[in-house]
Amino acid sequence: MFKRYLTIVLKSDYYFRATMKTVVDLYRNAFGGISKEVWFLSVMQFINRCGTMVFPFLSVYLKDEVAFDMVEVGAAMACFGLGSLLGVYTGGKIVDKIGSYAVMLFSLMTGGIMFLLMSTVSEFTTMCVGLFALSAFSEAFRPAGMVAISNYSTKDNYTRSVSLYRLAMNLGFSIGPAIGGFLAFYNYRLIFWVDGLTCIGAGLMLILLLKPKKNNHTKDEKKPVISQHARSPYQDKVYWIFLLVTIVYAMSFFQFFSTMPLFYKEEAGLDERQIGWLLTLNGIIVAALEMVMIYKIEKKFAPLNWVMFGTFLITVSYISLLFLDSVPWLIVLMVIVSFSEMFAMPFMNTFMNERANDAKRGQYASLYVMSWSVAQIIIPLLTTNVIAGFGYAALWMVMALLSVICIVLTMQLKKMSLQEKQHA
């Protein structure tokens, strides 16, 4: 009897050790081979994202704290999106001229100062102008960050480098909303101060950890000299369809982090602390699973196939809200949305990078990030007006329809890409 028990224990220990070794090797392989510069950029983004507190609570802040009506909330948040559009367009233009490093540093420092100033604003017009300026300065960082990742990675590890960068962002995002919800419960102004100070802190980290690098691609890839007449993204028809796909997906995704907190508070009865923890769940899931998941699946299918699957998950999420809206289901829903993000976003970045050429990389990145900004303009105007006129059930139907449209567009994009390769 004792020998049998001992045998079972030893076998269990063996299988446990083997399983743990497999898991450790899996994570080691997923994170291996990424340059130290990408790691430094990711640390900087982690610091920056730890302060992500204003945007997740902006709709609730404008409605409950500043006392704007629903339509004014949508207009003010659309101004934030307009500023983002200007910021990423300008950032993408100048990153090809002065480099990603200078743009990132300027964006972090000025954005940090603007967050501090916005803590004092409450009048509608001033709020709209202030949110526009804040977003214009801070969002210039995004195309510069994407170009920087491209500069410090290779073709073979680019998707994993993007995923590491996103991992750092999501780790920070898993901390930011939780702290932000706690601070907002007591004093909303504090979230502007923390957001601003972490931007400035990230700028200081950039100075300490990273040296500037010109916008050329990785040295291990031997590429021909690029003509001055390299393909422009503005003449790339396939890329414009991709940008349309990105806009529609971004609209579907942003709803969960823009006006969805209003639903959490008004319909589900959650307070700011609970909303913060629910948003934090997204960051935790993505941070824990995305790198390993990308490592396992990135070579299995073409990037656009994963984009379609991610969009399908978000479609299911909106349809389910027509029938299920309890707090436990909202938690399950956040898990589904997190997997949608992990399947869709890294492979959108990969598609963008594969279409770009070195001479126009900043412009390709800028247009890609601008497409997210366009979604930020449209979605608060659409959602707040639908909610005010028809209620939340109508909103779920509209968002589900948008997601279906995104799947159809992605199928067409895949067809065009295949035809282009056949005629190349």
Concise structural overview:
With 424 residues, the protein is mainly alpha-helical.
Throw out a few tags for this protein:
mainly alpha, Growth Hormone, Chain: A
Protein model, in words:
The chain is an all-alpha fold and 424 residues long. It has one domain: MFS general substrate transporter like domains (Growth Hormone, Chain: A, Up-down Bundle), CATH 1.20.1250. It has 16 helices and no strands. The termini are far apart.
Q: Residue-averaged pLDDT, rounded?
A: 83
Oligomeric description of these chains: single chain
Uncertain segments are: 216-228
CATH superfamily: MFS general substrate transporter like domains
Number of helical regions: 16
Distance between the termini: 71 Å
* Helix/strand order, N-terminal first: HHHHHHHHHHHHHHHH
SSE inventory with pairings:
Layout: H1 2-31, H2 36-49, H3 54-65, H4 70-98, H5 100-118, H6 124-139, H7 141-151, H8 158-186, H9 189-209, H10 237-254, H11 260-266, H12 272-297, H13 303-321, H14 327-355, H15 361-390, H16 392-422
